[in-house]
Amino acid sequence: MLSPAAIGKAILDHHASLIGADLSVKRVHDAHSLVKNSLDSVAPDLKLYTFGSSTVFGFHEPKSDVDFVALRQEDIVDGKGGDSTSQLAKGLQTQVLAKLAASVRQKNVQWAVEEVRRARVPVVKVKAPHIDFDITAHRRNGVRNSALLRHYLTQVPENRWLSIAIKSWSKRVGMNGPVGGYLTSYGFNILVVYYLLHRRRHEQPEVEQKEGQDGAASASVDGKQQKELTFIDKDTLDVSLIPPIPEYLALEPPNPETLGEQVLDFFDFYLSRFPMESHVISLSHKEPITKQSLNWTKTAEDMKNNTSMEKVFYRLCIEDPYEVNLNVGRNVSPFKFDLMKKHFVKGRATALGLL
Ligand code: ATP
Ligand code: MG
Ligand code: MG
């Protein structure tokens, strides 16, 4: 069996380029000014916000896209407001994005600019020479959910490595991606944060819990102290208090053994401790919640799939913290759910496929 230290070391070796590299948010700033330049010529009153991984991690990953959203002043002032999903709201977003896409095309003729109008969230996808980005409009939820994940992952900065490791593994094994994929990076990040918040639950009662010196609770995993996360009320996240471009967060190397232990325990949690069949992975509630309580049941699944084009599944249930009644794991069919469990078993046994 692989030792936690060997697993942690393999992960750090794989991501060696992240340690001490010139990680920064410079690329994000550069892309931001390019998009802002186009936005200013069509809708100068809109403010451009960044979200997604560059916000969550506080640096720009070499191969990742950057997510932008153009927000109106009223969206920012009402920074805790919910996003409308009406056809009218979507129509307004599509109009702004069409103008923006035209301007981006005109100013950067060699870039590939694609407008996706019919998706749940209208988006413009841009492929530029060194960077890809997605642009949406008038929607605060991405800014809020990214800030929520960032707040969680910075409570104990070493935990950022678990997120980096799981996300990159999910991409290597082909489980990550909106079309044909199982979950997005966003979904995997929620799995990581939920695990970190609830790993002491569904566990043996003899586990010691004690208050850490800094007030954060610590708990013993295999006799070693790991700092526990504090629950954050997601409703407190307010766009008017979130910076439009994320502040850079230096990435310190973690203790390899702790990282290895976390990876093993992450898989153990989802393979055997968390009651996946009956419960929902959710950052919205402090206490565990059931599928039944959200009406995310087989019957609801069948009813939805009889009436709508996009299939929705309630096997792997991950409640979006801000979207109403949205399962982030909605693409995970029973077949993919089984395959995913197999990937988890294999990921555990092979140090995320690295050993
Ligand atoms: P990557 O580097 O793979 O792009 P990322 O951290 O940017 O990772 P994405 O999965 O691209 O993560 O998600 C970016 C944003 O898109 C999220 O903050 C969220 O608002 C939205 N999103 C992604 N997946 C979903 C989903 N399954 N359901 C609802 N919203 C989603
Ligand atoms: Mg992204
Ligand atoms: Mg994106």
Automatic annotation (TrEMBL):
The keyword GTP-binding does not apply. One of its GO terms (molecular function) is metal ion binding. Gene3D superfamilies: 1.10.1410.10, Beta Polymerase, domain 2. Its EC number is 2.7.7.52. It catalyses: RNA(n) + UTP = RNA(n)-3'-uridine ribonucleotide + diphosphate. It is an enzyme of class 2 (transferase). Residues 258-325 form the PAP-associated domain. Its cofactor is Mg(2+); Mn(2+). One of its GO terms (biological process) is RNA 3'-end processing. GO terms for cellular component: mitochondrion. The keyword Transport does not apply. InterPro entries: MTPAP-like_central, NT_sf, PAP_assoc. Keywords: Magnesium, Metal-binding, Transferase. Residues 15-153 form the Poly(A) RNA polymerase mitochondrial-like central palm domain. It comes from the Eukaryota. CDD domains: NT_PAP_TUTase. This is RNA uridylyltransferase. It comes from Bodo saltans.
